[in-house]
């Protein structure tokens, strides 16, 4: 039988001592803001392994006994709120989650596992890498390079070989000042590429579009994810179509539109405003029938933000986890990197790697990148540092 006890003060020190750790470590964690602790006993496999997968990346520290039968979990209140909103509905997990939620007076909601391309997608185990494939003549970084179907498929194959988990196909540039592309032209660019990549390479594909008709056609061609840079504001039918299709949708924050977003972006306080904007988009999706486990959020680096806004969001990325949804971070080669380094797009790889590592530190679930091989290696080191350090073994 599993027991779950909230530990404070002397009880917390006794828990540390029982597991063989120094009591002084408890004080250090409390000083760092991890004030809510729970001591769980009577665990048997596979529950410890499942708990590890659920907790890693959520900002919850986990101390465990040598035999894995007892664990001590600690975190700040916002980390627990985010975790409880995503706690999986599996035997053993729910009992612990319900007890923790009751102790903290937090809402308890069961969130099913995301189904993506026919697979169960367990967020938090590691950071996933999304490779960018622009089939456009005018994208800011690689416009015109992959207009030919053969070139597009070859580049997708290269990114997959380098370790990409997704290929994100976009047929309309959303760089600052870009003009909209007619729906018929976007369909002509995107659908054959999606179909070819799925059939020839058996790859997971997301479609980068804010047009519901393009999203529908791409999913019917094999795409498994919709990536809407407008957060459902670009097409009033997108939420309804995403619900009908039943696939995950990435909701990005944007101030304005790609055409005017960088003309004069202003915020009183960027993080709370972006959080509210993302919550509004998620609520709109839920109201249309999109399942909670199919929502992913993206703060929208460079989409209606000045340099200081982007850097603040990157430094405080972990706060997005309080929404209870997986987080995507897209900083690759963007002007925020160029502004800091004073370098053109072609020389922003190292700067991008720094932002990717910081995104992993901020508990991003997905990073969207151009230079897949380099960023996969960056993510592996960052994951080993920022995710695994949250698990302390005796």
Give a structural overview.
- This protein is α/β, with parallel strands linked by helices and 394 residues long.
- It folds into two domains: 3-111; 115-388, Dihydropteroate synthase-like (TIM Barrel), CATH 3.20.20.20.
- The chain contains 14 helices and 15 strands.
- The strands form three sheets. The chain has an eight-stranded parallel β-sheet.
- A hairpin with a 6-residue loop joins strand 3 and strand 4 (71-75).
A few lines on this structure:
The chain is of the alpha/beta class and 394 residues long.
Query: Could you give the count of β-strands?
Result: 15
Helix/strand structural class:
alpha/beta
How much strand content do the residues show? 15-25%
Outline the low-pLDDT stretches. 390-394
CA-to-CA gap between the ends? Answer: 23 Å
What is the CATH topology assignment of the largest domain? TIM Barrel
CATH superfamily of the largest domain: Dihydropteroate synthase-like
Task: Supply the CATH class of the largest domain.
Answer: Alpha Beta
Rg, rounded, reads 22 Å
Roughly how much helix do the residues carry, as a percent range?
A: 40-55%
Number of contiguous helices: 14
Shape: globular
């Amino acid at each position: 039988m599993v027991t779950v006890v909230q530990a404070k003060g002397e009880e917390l020190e006794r828990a540390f001592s029982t597991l063989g750790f120094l009591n002084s470590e408890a004080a250090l964690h409390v000083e760092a803001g991890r004030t809510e602790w729970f001591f769980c006993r009577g665990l048997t496999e596979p529950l410890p392994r499942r708990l590890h997968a659920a907790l890693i990346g959520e900002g919850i520290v986990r101390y465990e006994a040598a035999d894995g039968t007892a664990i001590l979990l600690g975190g700040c209140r916002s980390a627990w709120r985010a975790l409880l909103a995503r706690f999986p509905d599996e035997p053993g997990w729910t009992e612990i989650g319900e007890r923790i939620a009751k102790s903290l007076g937090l809402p308890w909601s069961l969130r099913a596992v995301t189904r993506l391309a026919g697979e169960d997608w367990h967020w938090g185990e590691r950071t996933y890498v999304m490779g960018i494939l622009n089939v456009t003549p005018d994208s800011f970084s690689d416009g015109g390079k992959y207009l030919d179907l053969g070139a597009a498929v070859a580049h997708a194959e290269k990114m997959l070989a380098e370790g990409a988990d997704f290929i994100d196909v976009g047929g309309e540039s959303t760089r600052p000042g870009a003009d909209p592309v007619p729906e018929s032209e976007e369909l002509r660019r995107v659908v054959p590429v999606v179909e070819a990549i799925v059939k020839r390479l058996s790859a997971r594909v997301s479609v980068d579009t804010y047009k519901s008709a393009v999203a529908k056609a791409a999913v019917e061609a094999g795409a498994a994810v919709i990536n809407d840079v407008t957060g459902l504001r670009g097409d009033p039918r997108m939420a309804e179509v995403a619900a009908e299709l039943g696939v995950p949708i990435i909701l990005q924050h944007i101030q304005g539109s790609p055409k005017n977003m960088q003309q004069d972006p202003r915020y009183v306080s960027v993080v709370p405003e972006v959080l509210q904007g993302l919550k509004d988009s998620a609520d709109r999706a839920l109201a249309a029938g999109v399942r909670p486990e199919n929502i992913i959020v993206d703060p929208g680096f460079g989409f209606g933000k000045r340099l200081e806004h982007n850097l603040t969001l990157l430094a405080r990325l972990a706060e997005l986890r309080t929404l209870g949804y997986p987080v995507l971070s897209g900083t690759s080669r963007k002007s925020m990197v160029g502004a800091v380094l004073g370098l053109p797009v072609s020389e922003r790889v190292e700067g991008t790697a720094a932002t990717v590592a910081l995104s992993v530190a901020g508990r991003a679930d997905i990073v969207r990148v151009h230079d897949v091989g380099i960023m996969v290696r960056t993510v592996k080191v960052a994951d080993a540092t920022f995710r695994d350090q949250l698990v302390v073994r005796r």
